[in-house]
Amino acid sequence: MYVKPQSKFLITQSLLSSWQYGLSDERYYEDFLKALRNERTPPTKAMLDGIRFENVLNEVLNGATIEPAHEWYKPIMQLAEELDGAQQQVALYKDVVIDGICFVLYGKLDFLKAGIIYDTKFSKTYKVGKYFCSPQHPMYFALVPEAFEFQYKISDGEYVYTETYYPEDAYPIEGMIRNFMTFLERMNLIETYVANWKSKY
Amino acid sequence: MAIVKPEEMDFSNKNIVMIITGMPGVGKTTLALSAPDVLLIDADEGMARVNPEHRKDSSICSKYEELLTDIKEATGKYKTIVIDTGGALIDMLKDWAVRTDPKASKAFGGISLQGFGVVKTEFLRLFAELRKNFNVVLLFHESKEKQGDEFFYDIVCEGSAKTLVWQPADLGAHLHIINGERYLGFTPTMNYNAKSAYGIKGLVKVPELKSGEPNDFLTRLFAQVKENLKNESEQNRKQREAYDQVMAEGHKIINSIENPEDALPALTQIRSMNHVMTSQKELENAFKNHVKELGFVYDSQVKAYVRKAAE
Q1: What is this structure's pTM?
Q2: CA distance A135 to A131
């Protein structure tokens, strides 16, 4: 594959997740191609619920009060207690060179506190182990090598579940990026990626 | 409520909640009986398959109310409650919910959606209560399912409770055989779920239990957990103190920013601190938010922070 030597390309966990979904189920392959073309897709109801849940949590962490009658009172209060004092929406990026190509890893951490990265999810269909193969924790461990734990905090609106991963148990993100690039090359999609994911950083 | 300093914390009486999953016949019940002073809640007739030499007291109950009575009687007499199996416990809870809560059953029989809510709430209440007085070992049978190119060992349990049962657990391990030897897998893999904590992770070999030998594997593992907790606590305390100090100093520097010209020296000062854990990234993020709130932006031409021009 040939790319201009000075170019840097952005890699996000959501692009890699979209690729994973596209590979696991052909119904999502078109969504992956849209992500690769950097096209915006209208959010689904599940995504909107997730955004709303996160907004309520952030507001409570920033001092707003939540009424006990609120549909998410219990999980929000539980999370607010645990995440009190955490930095919210920590945007980070980092250069890595893989097979001679310079990539910029980019991620926005939901929360960061005392060595632990937290990511909140809202899912009505959560199953234990759902995030085992996710590129998110390997990517964020690369962005915050000093972190010693990553916790997915998943709520179904009633309960909060925790899935914990440690750096030593996570697959290095470089391997996944290498596989991703090999896939793009095999499918003649390198140009699409190069055209749409140039990094400004 | 008493405030306890980290150096004064005592984990010697901490109770541990552990899940053990495995295919039928792999030896889950015998292993669970190796925990300290066990009472087995035998909803699976698992004791019948245990070598008589290693049998312990057991409670055979068919209704949830009987289980609660036996647990109440066990308080102070036993250190560990083993529930064999978690799937059977959930079935018992479903039966109890349908019998005792009118909203829990559907008009034409079976448990309603609200009924599952009752089961979940009671399950969490039971475990919170059990943890106060006992270690708890919750056993689950597994089924082997094909997922793509891999096999996945999933716990046998009512679908809607499959996730919930992991919630109160400190540790979760998949008991399986590799080359004729038994291992507990504490780290999740593509093939099974697990839960590691307190330095107990990866594959832990379960030695073969020979006749005449004490069945005490989990007793020793729980003692290891407590030892690890004690050591971890001491290590963490020092690190946490240093972290808290850096964070406090960093926030003081950030809060002292009043004018755009204060910002860059403050950032330099933050970056030059001796950081602990993730303090640098946290303080840089706090700095970024603070200067944004003050209406300052970085001007790359003059290489300094300036007031944002009015739009």
Answers
A1: 0.87
A2: 8
